[in-house]
Amino acid sequence: MSASALLLSRIPGINPARLLQPHAKACLRNTASKRTQLVVQGTRVTQGRLLTTTVTTGPGSAEGHSIKPAARLEELNRLGITPYPRYQAPKVPTVLVRDVIQECERRLENGTKDETKKVSICGRIHSKRESSAKLVWFDLIQDGHSIQAVFNRRLYAGDDKTFETIAKSFQRGDIVQLTGHVGKTKTGQLSVFITDGFELLSPCLHPIPTRSGLKDPEKRFRNRHLDFLVNRDGLDVLRKRTQVIKFIRNYLDSRHFLEVETPILSTQAGGANAKPFVTHANALDMEMHMRVAPELFLKQLVIGGAERVYELGKQFRNEGIDADHNPEFTTCEFYQAYANLDNLFEMTEDMLREMAKSVTGSSTIPYKVSETETIDISFDKPFRKINIMECLEEKLGGPLPDLENEPVTELLDLCKKNRVFVSAPHTIPRIMDKLISAFIEPECVQPTFLWGHPIIMSPLAKDIKLASGRTVAGRFELFVVGKEIVNAYEELNDPTQQRDRFTKQQTDKENGDEEAQPMDQAFCSALEYGLPPTAGWGMGVDRVCQILTGSGHIRDVLAFPTMRALKE
């Protein structure tokens, strides 16, 4: 890079390629106002002719809003500019930048304007470049799309004073509305040539660090509005998240599922092994829990005759926060009568393959597993399947004890021998979960079904007997890049068995396991009316979005992730 280009690159909002030819020359000079100005002599790419370009750094330019917010507002009022006007629709059509690009990019020739009509465009000033006192170039951003605006005194219908006031007062970050003709510069840059209105709609009173960037996670996620202004790929992730949710909804709707909403607040939280958030309803004077899963409500709807039902919604679990866990998260759960695990295996493979194609354009996606390694994740059928109990016994070098006999000591000895730490309370489900996490989950990089769970780990699943003679839960989990993204059951519909399993869970809860499920007599009573053979399925939407967008942390796919409060 030439010295002049290097110097330009250090100025926020300036792209040297748009200002200089390879041999352009630059020099610094000080003005009487003590502002540092960079005078560039060369050919402006967007104008196509030799001129002198002045880019100012200092108050109101680049990133350096050295003027305080109150002083800026006072200055705008002094100049007769209303900082926060009521929005008034202009007399000419207001158009979207994306529509202008789509309609005019190919239609217009270089160096021409469509003078048959005027349009109005709103947006945020992303950059400002002063060619002279009578020519200023702006780049506007609107909903992720950019267009250049040319503010030329020769084309502007207002008087000299208004032109000068606007040219000097409007800054990077300001939200504006302008009116003019759409055209192209001589070098083909699609632009709006401002002719009439150029109005401030809302000023930006603080610097937007486009130059220095915003990389510190603490600053990014505590100031998400600023993060999205600086790191535009953050909004792209949210757009893909929307695509994922739309796909899931369309997929299930097209298969005649009924979308419903079930309570977020209830007198107890069941449907999953998790610690709930507890609150108090003043009007009812009673303790209430935020839901950890909608499962029990959805199965009651199946009992009531809604034989294909689903819910997309928020769940809340009062547990740890890490790269894959946020206390508030989004899931999709569906329940289908007269279906089994075989149906769910097939639907899961089909849904994820088609989802990947819809969102990314391919069933194979790149995923960055470390700073130096990226792998391809393939959602093409068939997914790998691992029988949990057989795999554990192979890795541990012998058969596991009969879990129905509560072999806590034996399992803890196995954990100690293999350096697997299990925190208290030491219940069979917790110990088995740790063993699976240590020995099997790390192998699940490509999409992998884990099935054949011990019944004791799955209190809501029907039990099935394998050809080997072993009885296991009718359940599977799907892991991708080590993350659990799907959990599916053949649902237990025997009310007597369900009461027995809830009783065992209650014992675990009384022994200190805060994640064990409580007894739910209302649900067991509902089962007595008859739950058809039903297959149930749940997906962690946030984790799927992580994988499809290549995001390493769950907070990247949440608009506003949970953050620890700052100490005063």
UniProtKB/TrEMBL annotation:
Residues 241-561 form the Aminoacyl-transfer RNA synthetases class-II family profile domain. InterPro entries: Aa-tRNA-synt_II (IPR004364), aa-tRNA-synth_II (IPR006195), aa-tRNA-synth_II/BPL/LPL (IPR045864), Lys-tRNA-ligase_II (IPR002313), Lys-tRNA-ligase_II_bac/euk (IPR034762), Lys-tRNA-ligase_II_N (IPR044136), Lys-tRNA-synth_II_C (IPR018149), NA-bd_OB-fold (IPR012340). Keywords: Aminoacyl-tRNA synthetase, ATP-binding, Ligase, Nucleotide-binding, Protein biosynthesis. Residues 496-516 are annotated as: Disordered. Coiled coil: none annotated. The keyword Ribonucleoprotein does not apply. It is an enzyme of class 6 (ligase). Gene3D superfamilies: Bira Bifunctional Protein, Domain 2, Nucleic acid-binding proteins. Residues 497-510 have a biased composition (Basic and acidic residues). The keyword Ligase applies. It catalyses: tRNA(Lys) + L-lysine + ATP = L-lysyl-tRNA(Lys) + AMP + diphosphate. Belongs to the class-II aminoacyl-tRNA synthetase family. HAMAP family: Lys_tRNA_synth_class2. This is Lysine--tRNA ligase. It comes from Linnemannia gamsii.
